[in-house]
Specification:
Length: 362
C-alpha cells in the first residue's frame, strides 16, 4: 500500500489586493504557515509521497523567506516529495526551482516533457513534467505508462475547462488511455473530488487556502491510498481563515434568522452576509455590533425588499404618488442589480419626503 498527500495551487506570496499593506503581509505570513502544516500532516498520516501539482508560488517573483520556508518544510517531512511547476511558478531563468539547493527527498520535474522517477522500495513509478513557459501544450496527449506491473502515479499542472486551453489541456480520453493509477493535478482552484477515466483515478484538490470570495468555502488537500492499483481518496480540510458567502431571509427578526443559520464555528470566517426577502428596514449597524465577534471579518449587505406597503401611495395625485408610480414601473422591468438600487431609491425618497434623518445619513 502507498499513502500520499496531494496539494496544489498554494499561490504563495499573493499580493492580496484590497488589503492594507500590514494586513496583506499578515495574510502572506499565514499562507507560509501552510507549508509546515502540510509537512506535519504528511508525517501524521505516514505518507510515503507528497505530490505538489504546481502554482506553489503566485508568480516567478517571490520573497526569499518564502522559498526558505518551503525548502525547510519539505525537507522536514519523511515523505518523498514530487513537484510539478505550473503556469504561475514556471521554470523561468533564476527560478528557485532551478537555482536553490533542495533537500534530497524533493524531486522537481524541470522539463516540459514526461520523465519519471522509480521508487523500487514501493514498486512505484512517479511521472511528471513542468511548465518551462507561462503556457504549455497538452503534455498528457499520447502518453502511456511503460510498466503496468508497477504502481504508476503522475504529478502535473493542467486545465480541463476547455479543450484548447493554453495551460496544458487535460482531456478525459487522454487520462483514460494513460494507464496511470492516480493522476495528481493542479490549476483548478475548486476541489474536484475523485474522478475516474478508464482505470485511472484523477483529481484537482483545489487551493488549500482561499484568497477571496471567488475561492470561498472549506479548503484543504487530498489524502490517498493505493492498494492493488485501486485508489481511495479523502478530503482533509486545513485550518485557517476561510471566505464564506451566506444568504439569509431576514424575516421579522433578522438577528434571529442569522443566528439560526450559523450552525458551526465561524470565528475564522471572512464572511459576506446577504439579507434577502421582504422585510422592514434592517438596522445594519446594530446587526454588526451583535455579530461582529463571531467572525474574523464580517460584511452585511441589505438586499431585502420592502414590504408591500412601500407602494401604498403609488397612484395618488401627489408628488409621493407620482414618484412611487415611476419607480414601481422601473422595478418591474429592472434586472436584479438595478432592482436593488431602485428599491433603495424608493425608500430614501420616502424618507426624504418624511424628513427622516436616515435619508441624510445615506
Amino acid at each position: 500500500m502507498i499513502k500520499f498527500l496531494h496539494a496544489a495551487d498554494l499561490h504563495l506570496d499573493s499580493p492580496f489586493h484590497g488589503l492594507k499593506q500590514a494586513e496583506a503581509a499578515a495574510r502572506r505570513k499565514e499562507h507560509r504557515q501552510l507549508l509546515t502544516t502540510l509537512a506535519e500532516l504528511a508525517d501524521e498520516e505516514s505518507c510515503d509521497l507528497m505530490l505538489l501539482s504546481g502554482d506553489l508560488f503566485d508568480s516567478t517573483d517571490m520573497y526569499q523567506e518564502t522559498v526558505e520556508t518551503l525548502i525547510r518544510a519539505l525537507g522536514s517531512c519523511r515523505a518523498r516529495v514530487f513537484l510539478s511547476p505550473g503556469n504561475h511558478d514556471w521554470l523561468c531563468p533564476g527560478s528557485p526551482y532551478l537555482t536553490a539547493v533542495w533537500p534530497d527527498n524533493v524531486h522537481i520535474f524541470r522539463r516540459q516533457e514526461m520523465e519519471f522517477v522509480d521508487l523500487p522500495e514501493l514498486n512505484c513509478r512517479v511521472y511528471g513534467a513542468g511548465f518551462t513557459a507561462p503556457h504549455a501544450p497538452s503534455l498528457l496527449r499520447g502518453f502511456r505508462v511503460k510498466d503496468r506491473d508497477k504502481t504508476n502515479l503522475m504529478v502535473l499542472h493542467g486545465d480541463a475547462t476547455t479543450a484548447d486551453s493554453p495551460y496544458n489541456a487535460v482531456a478525459k480520453e487522454d487520462v483514460a488511455e494513460s494507464g496511470l493509477d492516480y493522476l495528481a493535478l493542479g490549476h483548478i482552484h475548486a476541489g474536484s473530488g475523485a474522478l475516474t477515466a478508464g482505470s485511472t483515478c484523477y483529481a484537482w484538490p483545489g487551493c488549500p487556502m482561499g484568497r477571496g470570495f471567488d475561492e470561498a468555502g472549506p479548503k484543504g488537500v487530498y489524502l490517498g491510498t493505493i492498494r492493488d492499483h485501486r485508489c481511495d481518496l479523502r478530503f482533509r480540510e486545513l485550518p485557517g481563515k476561510r471566505y464564506e458567502e451566506l444568504s439569509v431571509t431576514a424575516g421579522d427578526d433578522p438577528l434571529a434568522a442569522i443566528q439560526a443559520a450559523l450552525t458551526e464555528d465561524t470565528s475564522q470566517w471572512i464572511c459576506r452576509l446577504r439579507l434577502t426577502g421582504p422585510a422592514e428596514r434592517v438596522d445594519v449597524p446594530a446587526l454588526h455590533r451583535a455579530l461582529d465577534e463571531r467572525f474574523y471579518a464580517l460584511t452585511i449587505r441589505d438586499e431585502t425588499e420592502p414590504k408591500a406597503d412601500l407602494w401604498a401611495a403609488a397612484g395618488e395625485d401627489s408628488l409621493r404618488g407620482k414618484y412611487l408610480s415611476l419607480l414601481r414601473s422601473a422595478v418591474d422591468e429592472a434586472g436584479p442589480d438595478q432592482r436593488q438600487a431602485l428599491l433603495l431609491a424608493a425608500r430614501l425618497g420616502i424618507d426624504a419626503m418624511d424628513g427622516r434623518e436616515e435619508a441624510v445619513d445615506l
